[in-house]
Design a protein that fits this description.
Keywords: Iron, Iron-sulfur, Metal-binding. Helices cover about 25% and strands about 20% of the residues. It is of the alpha+beta class. The protein is globular.
Length: about 350
């Protein structure tokens, strides 16, 4: 049982939360879209309730609120190195059910896949998450097929209802901020969607020739290797390192090392010493990404890496359909099981 808040009460609660937390949510950024005179919706630091975009899926995922696109790991000189201070405030992040499930994938890679990542952990351990209810699936969403339309572990749940907001706050720290604010008891509205925007079938088992199927060749000429699909994905975790040398000092012998998002779809990602490159062709890189999302990761951890948010499909400038690729892969698997060829 939660409570129904009017807009004024919700504003007061948000203001109280802001005393302790930097609050991140989907916001509209005018003129920042891929095409001329278009907007984008991505995660940003908010000051007011009115900034939050409720009725549209964000073009970029929540992960940049936890994992900066470019993050300084340490500063260095000839004799010393120092780690930047941690953020002074905790973070409160509004997200969808698929993204709450994606958080499990990020935690798996940065906290449980070997030694804990110091930089990720110090932000993650103080973060709180507010689940945003979904009434209907957004374009290209297939979270129901991936089992990520429901989730656990959120600290508060919010669902807009006209000019009012349904709020359920199981977290004691967040709930304490609501003390003294009058709100009426209300029954919980529908928390998650039950059907997908597109029909997607993930193959139960891949055919033995999955890596050499002809379908991958179709992407060799279409994919331009821009990497946007990886950058908007809430579960992609790859990065590269960059050293920035300052020039306003003695011989430029001081600087900083940064961790920067990287993409397995970009040419040169797998380059090694000696001129070795494992995946030179865009079709090969597409194959690697898809099989990793719905097969390789699951073999290792027991659940799919993909959460069905559909952002990769929405952002692609070449209109490559990730969901269609999955369905073609499933068709190839069924054909192989029946003794046919693909």
């Amino acid at each position: 049982m939660g409570k129904l808040w009017n807009r004024h009460q919700a504003r007061l609660l948000l203001a109280r939360w802001q005393e302790t937390y930097d609050i991140y949510a989907p916001v509209r950024m005018p003129g920042d879209g891929c095409f001329s005179d278009t907007d984008t919706v991505r995660y940003g630091l908010i000051d007011s309730l009115e900034e939050i975009v409720w009725d549209q899926k964000s073009d970029y995922s929540f992960k940049e609120a936890l994992l900066p696109i470019s993050e300084t790991l340490f500063y260095f000189t000839d004799d010393n190195a120092s780690v930047p201070e941690a953020p002074k405030k905790k973070r409160l992040i509004f997200l969808r059910s698929c993204e709450m499930n994606a958080l499990r994938r990020l935690d798996q890679m940065y906290l449980n896949n070997g030694p804990e990542d110091f930089y990720y952990k110090r932000i993650r351990q103080d973060a709180r998450f507010v689940l945003m209810g979904c009434d209907t699936p957004f374009a290209s969403c297939f979270c129901a097929s991936m089992g990520t339309n429901t989730c656990e572990g959120y600290h508060a749940y919010v669902h807009p209802d006209g000019d009012r907001f349904y709020l359920d706050i199981p977290d004691r720290e967040l709930a304490a901020c609501a003390d003294g604010l009058a709100a009426e008891d209300a029954s919980q509205p529908v928390k998650s969607v039950t059907k997908d925007a597109v029909s997607v079938k993930i193959p139960d088992a891949l055919p033995e020739n999955a890596a050499t199927l002809d379908l991958w060749k179709d992407y060799s000429s279409r994919c331009i290797s821009c990497g946007r699909c990886n950058f908007v994905c809430p579960t992609c975790t790859c990065f590269t390192m960059q050293d920035l040398f300052y020039r306003d000092n003695d011989h430029g012998r001081a600087g900083e090392r940064r961790r920067v998002w990287a993409s397995c779809q970009v040419d040169g990602y797998t380059d090694m010493a000696g001129g070795i490159c494992f995946r030179k062709d865009p079709g090969e890189r597409m194959r690697f990404k898809v099989l990793h999302k719905i097969s390789d990761y699951k073999k290792r951890f027991g659940y799919h890496m993909c959460v069905g948010c559909g952002r990769c499909e929405n952002i692609c400038p070449e209109y490559i359909s990730y969901t269609e690729c999955l369905n073609r892969l499933d068709a190839a698997a069924r054909s192989s099981a029946e003794g046919g060829e693909q």
